[in-house]
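Researcher: Go.
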Amino acid sequence: MSETSTGVLAAPARRRARAAGWRPDEMLRFGSLLAVFAAWQASGLFLNRIFISTPSIVARDFVGLVAAGTLPRAFLQSAFEMALGFSVAATLGITLGVLMGRINLLERTLDPFVNFFNATPTIALLPLMEIWFGIGFWARISFIVVISLWTMLINTLSGVRNVSRQYAEVGAAFGLSPFEATRQIFLPAAVPYILAGARLALAQAGVGMILSGQEIGEAGLGGLTENYGSYFQTGHLIAAIVSSTALVMLAFWLLRRTQARLFPWIAATSAGRR
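Model: Structure:
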């Protein structure tokens, strides 16, 4: 059979697959997920459940935690703390990044401190947060801010610094003041950098949310993972881990929706497609 006739015969099959709502890449992803879950479920036949639970047990434990209200309470608490900490970090990071990018003296003054704190292993600051703010809510918020601030600041600074000089010259030709040039030229041009930094900072805020919950008061989803891991409740532990991953993925989705609504032009750029 010739290559042409084979292609003609395969075309109706492709059309049927598209009509059924399945594309080859979607079928491949679904098949790979199905294979992983099948292998995971089969592992329960010969592995101790303390080391790895099975999907069916995790699903049962997940439903039990939701029905008891334990998981929803921890999820909402962690979501609030993560959102608040990230919002503070984004506000401070964008503001300082823009100011440092526009004021050379301020950048030269603050650059050593930014480099120092960005290079500091953030987890080492957890005990310091506890000393300063106690074992509670504000210590966890502060840690989330600290762990995600520097990415926002550095990305914003890079975005402002990489604005084409021609844009600045056009603004000067139209008589824009430094504030007007910042608002109308430099800040919009830096938006792709800011959004890229926001994606990275959200992931860091998720890590900070878990770490602070584990180490400061055992609160939220981090507290659940710490508690269940200590008592070898593997099914409950994996359910809490999946919930924390779902929380960060939800934050990513909200960020993409916000980007699509407020900055639709970025969707056509490489930064918007990442």
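Model: The two ends are 42 Å apart (CA to CA).
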